[in-house]
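#random but structural
TW: two for the price of one
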Amino acid sequence: MMVKVIGAGLAGTEAAWQLAQRGISVELYEMKPHKKSPAHHTDTFAELVCSNSLRGDKIENAVGLLKEELRRLDSLIISCADATRVEAGGCLAVDRQGFSDLVTEKIRSHPNITVIDEEVTEVPEGPVIIATGPLTSDALSKAIGAYFGSDYLHFFDAAAPLVTAESVDMNEAWWQSRYDRGTPDYVNCAMNKEQYEAFIAELISAEEAEVHGFEDKRVFEGCMPVEVMARRGQDTLRYGPLKPVGLVDPKTGKEPYAVVQLRQDNAAKSVYNLVGFQTHLKFGEQKRVFSMIPALKNAEFVRYGVMHQNTFLQSPNLLDKYYADRRNPLVAFAGQMTGVEGYVESAASGFLAAVAMAAKVQEREIPDFPKETAIGALGLYISDGRIENFQPMNVNFSIIAPLEQRIRKKAEKNLAIANRSLAIIDELKNKGI
């Protein structure tokens, strides 16, 4: 039996790997290098188009729990992330190119995977997993729309700028992680009240690049452009990505008025990204306004922030908890187009869609990932027909089944939920899913 996987992003490569590891022949279709979306720049698979961080790595954090579940289940994406890790305090961040190169190497060298470099413009007959991401080509988007007979919803995502490490003025910055957690992996660029207010004034009036159909209300809150946040109030950024809490400026011994944090973006520590600075300002305006940050007054920008359109399905009306078409279980979808938001969540959807598809084609019982697990909770969220206003969702403890007993302290409660989940995951793995 052969299964087609469309798209070699995080979800598609994870799906292809899981199928292949179960002895199933896979045809993996990827339109690169012949055609790229506006946000993609390389020819490699699993390209990270926004941050290089897979977010928190502690199991008391929901995304940390999701990573640990995938890690125990031999996830391709998590194993490659662990192998190309760069220091980022309590987060799992990766060398962007090294990570993508490793995923590509593993996929192309797997004996059960055949990579076909061409664009798919129609929904294939099953068995198939479509994981073309939030930047699905126009032709396939129209085909999927016709397939379901329903309209898409759209939102916009944004990527932060990158600067060279050597161009950051360290006389105006210092190394520290918030609350001194872990190692001091962030470069902190402080602003006083006068500098911050001048920065905000220029930021909210800066000229934006043209983005067809853009409306502030349609921007997903988890990846909102920094200029949009600034328009919501003078202090919005100080309570968001520029919050100074947990940081002490060694020059003053006090908490700064506002802080821009830079995070390592590659293993060589030569490039850093502006944390939380997703934007769709014109490139010249980014240079002008972001250079108002004292430590970045001479910053060399190696990539400016970009804004691009993302597309996702009304999944609760269309898909089941295994990301499969309710009408045809041999046609499944995975990744951000299903309404999961985030790198790890995308990989998790590809994992579950593939595990379920493998069971179907091999005529085995589909393993049950219950709501007590992060992997299962995500699948149940995107397939919950009771949701009236469906929006993309990062994994969080609110969608995971609560404990039967009450634990008042949040950290202890989350840890108990995580331990319960991992026990279920270990049991599933022992059954040979």
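TW: number two ↓
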Amino acid sequence: MTIMLPGIRACVFDAYGTLFDYASAAASCRDVLGDKHGILTAMWREKQLQYSWLRTLQGRHADFWQVTGDALDFTLETLGIADDMLRNRLMNLYLTLEAFPEVPAVLERLKAAGLKTAILSNGSPEMLDAIVGNAGIGDLLDAVLSVEAVGVYKTHPKVYQLAVDRLGVAAEATAFQSSNAWDAYGASAFGMRVVWCNRYGQHPERLPGRPDREITSLAELPALVGA
């Protein structure tokens, strides 16, 4: 039985791993990487997130394009891959990441129900414009929000406040969706209602906050918010 989240007026989405498949970049390079594409994806993503958190702690912000490139360089060196053409190919593919199959239909249902929709992401504005345009979902979003507006990465409260301010919807009336457990818990601790899209079978975090609902695909979201 679906237990709805009452009073939701806006649905805000994380981008990478939630709306867009970050694994699709390395998967598209299997002709070069072979069976290394999986380990490259995992290490690249892990280092990308580590660098975002550490830069926030250090007060040394750099945009997500630089962080993503630095993380890739670390990963390629660790795996013993010296290939500038591959490096450029992977970075360019990050601008055309595939949206998960259910995403367009879910956004259409939310918009048809009168809910505001937005992306709230670590990605730089240029990165987000590229993947949103490639997926053809720009008309289904009221806002595409980058942490560059506040100069710190998730899970700093300033990031979640950005969505509240730009959409004009209180945190408690906003459903935040992320596939990243740490992000889901961060938004919950901030005061948003949270639907954790646990695509990757993660275990619950031992952090402040607690997601209100857990799903495995965004296709389950409309029923939770009355769309």
